[in-house]
Amino acid sequence: MTLAAYTPRSLPESLGGLFTLALDLRWTWHHGSDELWRVLDEETWESTRNAWLVLNSVSGDRLEELAEDPSFQLRYREQIAAHQAFAQANTWYSDNCPGDLGAGIAYFCMEYGLSESLPLYSGGLGVLAGDYLKAASDLGVPVTAVGLLFQQGYFRQAISNEGEQLEFYPYNDPTMLPVSPLRDADGQWVRVVVPFPGRHVRLRAWKAQVGRCELLLLDSNDPRNEPGDRGITSELYTGDPEKRLQQEMVLGIGGWRLLAQLGIQPALCHLNEGHCALALIERAFSWQDLHTTDFKTARTATRATNLFTTHTSVASGFDHFSHTLLRLYLTPWLETRELTVDGLMKLGLPGTVCGFKTDDASLNMAYLALNMSGRVNGVSRIHQKVSQAIFQPFFPRWPADDIPAESVTNGVHTPSWDSPDSDAIWTRACGKDRWRRPLQNSCPMSAVSDAELWEMRRLQRKRLVHYLRRRLASQHCEQNPGQDYGAACGLLLDNETLTLGFARRFTEYKRPDLLLKDQQRLLGLLASRDRPLQIVLAGKAHPYDQPGKDIIRRWKAFSRRPDVEGKVVFIEDYDLGVASQLIQGVDVWLNCPRHPWEACGTSGMKVLVNGGLNLSQYDGWWAEAWTPDVGWAIRSGATFEELANSNDHDLSDAEELFDLLEREVIPAFYNVDEQGIPRQWVEKIRASMDHLTATYSANRMVREYVERFYLPMALQGEQRDPSTAADIVSEHGEITRCWPRLRFSAVNVIESDGSQTYTVELYLDGISEQRITVELVSEASGHGPRTVTEMTMQHPLAGSAHSYLYECIVPSRPQGHYTPRIRVRDERLNLPLENPAVLWLK
Ligand SMILES: *Cc1c(COP(=O)(O)O)cnc(C)c1O
């Protein structure tokens, strides 16, 4: 890479603003400037959707020519004006809570899926982070995101004739990506240094503009680094723990240092998954330096404004690193600090663990994040329960319902996923600006007729079939013809046939092979003459996931059977570009993970805006969204408790899936009236669009983060000044020391008229009664729901120091249903997260 590559090429003066337009990824969802890029270089634009690449590949002569072209000039000036208006416009945030988040949110994530032209993601987590950032821009929420600039990213996929997944790692030349070097106020390229064993790793900083937000990216490919270090940010999710730790150091330590170097002091730090947990340690260090305190105080002060979002459904899914690896890599960083490697490892363990054997101990990054955060959330209501179970060891003796994992259900960035046809319909129903503000549930499709909705669906399906044929052609159908050349090229796909889509990571728990469990039945559906089905599949298996790869091979073999060929197609190299085409065109989106292992799932949300319908396992978001009028659910009403430990529902789920297809989905699709419209189907489309699109949008998700988390957390954070934080540390240290001596000394119940008066006597040792809460807890039963009733202090007990009488009145329940407990009370803290001490009456 040369410096020249970063000296903006000279543009004709009258087109100077093209730089700004080309580097703002807003073009991934706001299509106003598409025409400009198409005119500049149609081939590059259509094949890469990378406006920056278009601008860099167009010839100087062509630019001069266009600068003189009045119609191009007009279009250009319109777009520049629109971009300026966009930058200055009021937003939801500026209207509702201007400035309340101070310097804003620092958002950390290992991957970002913003566009297929910026391949820094592997799947759901990254796409979610990308959609979050786009919605934050729409709403004007001040977010600075931090990530890594991978030179190769996740692998690219092809499938061999034998159905074998082939993996490629093409190099992404950063000068061709829609990012620019991050420069400081003096115009110097910003660089960050992270201590590694025996050396320093230098990181170069880049910036991707995402509308109003910035994504800052680090990469280690600096020629001054050791050759091995230059590759730290080459690939995403390799199986090598050492490389993984190196990446997490770069992201967490380097990422926080980058912000500090830029003078950004975020009001809050939001971790999207635990990979970036080291950022929270580095954040505490820099707070410690600023206020000259000890580490404990710094941790207490900063954690109030750390939010940790987990997306994992099994504890073993979290990253963990061995003590040996940590000692090797983190010692240079911790050398000048009072925190040792062992001390860091303890931060990833439950507070009650006093000693641990370093040989077999490992640091779990999610647990570290939990112990460094002020709030924690899962990404759907079921996932909240799953997370509560995972974090149970950190909250000994706490019932699952009280474990402080909250939930914010994910959402998708609607304007990134709508089709031109659905965009037109929504604009008519709800206006042009609809996605920039809180989406109204009250903007129904009532102004749009059945005929128009159905026409939209037909156009989208036709466009999908066209796209599939193009893709299949580029997948070399000519060289890979199977039995029937035309079938391999997608010529048998039909514009009017019910089209089922399944695309996601090919891994066992997602059960991409559920339909293959009964091949005879599937053959019957595909072969039907008057009510046929066609299926489009896509997805990658992780390079080390052999069972996932086997499923791809089985689908490939099935799709090449002479009686199937052409009706089931597999599109290679699933990415954002493929996803956006599939979700616009399919009639039914299938998702069938093993309950409850899908934390949320987002691909099904992407079809909502386009009138696609969901047929999905009752899991993740669909368990919240599903009602019979909006789509179909497999094993509806299933509960987490019922299925958590059972993998043996595969066959019965497959059976239910086929039943739904045969009895409900296919008949409803083909049951058309004399005008050729399937009324029942269109009614479902209307209900799904009306009821679900706004709710499962990133717009709603980001507002929820702001209102329920960022704003109250920022307020709490402001109160944790150095002296308050030091007080909290010493007071709670004392509470923890005294806690083992707390005890209940007597309990009494008096029954009268259907209510019970409970009194308890407590001995509080040295703990102030201001610092405890006494509660009477009754779990849900035939006698009613779970209740937690606070008991009030009546008076100290005469004749015995530190002893008090508490009382409350509750509706009568049988003996043994109510149990008193003592917990810590402190309005300054989030409890029980920050102090899980609890004492139950035995
Ligand atoms: C939306 C999306 C995902 C996530 O889909 P899930 O249903 O959550 O598995 C993964 N990859 C791509 C390319 C996507 O667009």
Keywords:
18% strand; Rossmann fold; binds pyridoxal-5'-phosphate; 4 domains; alpha/beta; 842 residues
SSE blueprint and pairings:
Elements: H1 18-23, H2 34-40, H3 42-48, H4 51-57, H5 60-67, H6 70-88, H7 92-96, E1 105-108, E2 112-113, E3 119-120, H8 124-139, E4 143-148, E5 156-159, E6 165-168, E7 180-181, E8 191-196, E9 199-210, E10 213-219, H9 227-230, H10 241-261, E11 268-272, H11 278-291, H12 295-303, E12 306-309, E13 320-322, H13 323-334, H14 341-346, E14 362-364, H15 365-372, E15 375-378, H16 381-390, E16 406-407, H17 414-417, H18 420-430, H19 450-474, H20 485-488, E17 498-503, H21 519-527, E18 533-538, H22 546-559, E19 568-571, H23 576-585, E20 588-591, H24 603-606, E21 613-617, H25 620-625, E22 631-634, H26 640-643, H27 650-670, H28 679-692, H29 698-719, H30 722-738, E23 743-752, E24 755-763, E25 772-778, E26 787-796, E27 803-811, E28 818-824, E29 838-840
Parallel strand pairs: 1-4, 1-11, 4-10, 11-12, 12-15, 15-16, 17-18, 17-20, 18-19, 20-21, 21-22
Antiparallel strand pairs: 2-3, 5-6, 7-9, 8-9, 9-10, 13-14, 23-24, 24-27, 25-26, 25-28, 26-27, 28-29
Helix pairs in contact: 2-3, 3-4, 8-29, 10-11, 11-12, 12-30, 19-23
What would your notes on this structure say?
With 842 residues, the chain is α/β, with parallel strands linked by helices. It folds into four domains: 3-88, no CATH class; 102-154 and 192-410 and 712-717, Glycogen Phosphorylase B (Rossmann fold, 3-Layer(aba) Sandwich); 449-696, Glycogen Phosphorylase B (Rossmann fold, 3-Layer(aba) Sandwich); 733-840, Immunoglobulins (Immunoglobulin-like). It is 38% helix and 18% strand. Strands 1, 4, 7, 8, 9, 10, 11, 12, 15 and 16 form a ten-stranded mixed sheet that branches. The chain has a seven-stranded antiparallel sheet with strand order 23-24-27-26-25-28-29, with no helix packed on it. Strands 19-18-17-20-21-22 form a six-stranded parallel sheet, with helices on both faces. A hairpin with an 8-residue loop joins strand 25 and strand 26 (787-796). It is globular and about 95 Å long. It starts with 17 loop residues before the first helix and ends with a strand. Bound molecules: pyridoxal-5'-phosphate. Pyridoxal-5'-phosphate binds at residues 123-124, 127, 504, 574-576, 579, 591, 601-603.
